[in-house]
Amino acid sequence: MEKHLHIVCLNVPYPVNYGGVFDLFYKLGALQASGVNIHLHCFEYGRGEQNELNKYCSSVHYYKRTMGFQAFSIKIPYIVSSRSNKELMKRLAQDEHPILMEGIHCTWLLNDARFKHRRCFVRLHNVEHVYYNYLFQHSTQPFKKMYYSWESNQLKCYEKSIVNKATYWSVIETDTTLFRSMGCNDITFLPLFLPPWKVSGREGKGTFCLYHGDLSVPENEKAAHWLLDEVFHDLEIPFVVAGKDPSASLVHKAENTRHTCIVANPGENEMQDMVAKAHIHILPSFNATGIKVKLVNALFNGRHCVANPSTVDGTGLETACIVAHDTADFRQIISKMYQQPFTETELLARKQLLTGMFDNEANARQMVKWIWGK
Description:
By secondary structure, the chain is α/β, with parallel strands linked by helices. The protein is 39% helix and 17% strand. It is globular, with a radius of gyration of 21 Å.
C-alpha cells in the first residue's frame, strides 16, 4: 500500500538558515527514504518558492499568509488565524490521507468539521503560550509587549481547546509533561531531525568562548547583552558573539568590551568553523520550552558546553553539558573550563548519547509506525 502524507508547514522549510526549519526540512528526506509520498503545503511570506523541496516531495503547494489586521481574530491566536486558507482546506479535503501539521501555527483545520475523523498529527515545536509569555517578558518595545501578552493569553486558551483533536509529537520531554497537564491524552516525545552531523568535537583546547544565535530575536539579544554586562565584562578570556542581524546597541557594546568581538551575519561555513574552533560554547536561555538547535550543534560539532537549566531541562542532554545556575556559576565555570582540554572520554560519551537519540532514519520509521501501524 502506498503511503501518502500531507505536511502543512508554517513557513517554507528551505533554505535551512535558522534553527526553526531544521526539523521541518530534514524530516522530509527521512520520510521519503522510508517510502512516504509527501504532499507539502507551505505558507510563503518572504522566503520564496524553493525547487530544492521538489526533490523530497510528490507535490509542493504554496499559500500566502494573511498578514496584519486582516488576520486578527478575537478567538483564534494570530499565528493560527493568519494561516487559515480556503484553498489549502479545499485541497486537503480532496482525499483521506493523514495530515501532519508543523506547529500549533498550522492547526486551523482542527476546527473544521470536515477533518474531525481524519488522522491528524501535530509536531509541537514549543508550548507556544509559554514561548510568547517569554517574548512578552523580554521585549522592551511597548507595542510588541502588548501583542506578545495578548497572543500568549489567546494561545493558552486555544491550545487547551485542541489538545485532544490530534496526536502530538513534542521535541522535549518537558513539553510532553506540560501538554499532558493541560489535558492532552495523546502526546509522545520525538527527537529533532538534523543534518547528517557526526560527533566531531576536537580534542584539546580551542581559542575562545562563543555565543551564537539569531541576534534579531529579543531573547537572544538579551542573552548576549547579559553575557557582556554580567559574565565577560572583566574576564581575561576571548569571547565571540556571532549571529544574524545584531542591533546597533549590541554591536557597540561588543566593540567596547575588552577581549570581545562580534561577527554579524556569518555564512554557514564561517559559523560552523567558529563552532569547531571555540573552546567553550556559552548557552544561556530565558525560554524553557522547545529545544535549541544551537545546543545540539555545539554538542555535535564543538567542545565544552556551559548552559543554564532553561536550555537543557527536559532535553535529555543535561549530562553532556556543564550546568550553571546563576551569574556567579557562569563566571566560575568558564574560568575553570577554559583551562581544561576537551578529552577523548568526553567525546566518546557524547557519541553514545547523541547517536542513539538523533537518528533520522530510525525516527522516520517510528513516525511511519505511528501513522500507519506496523
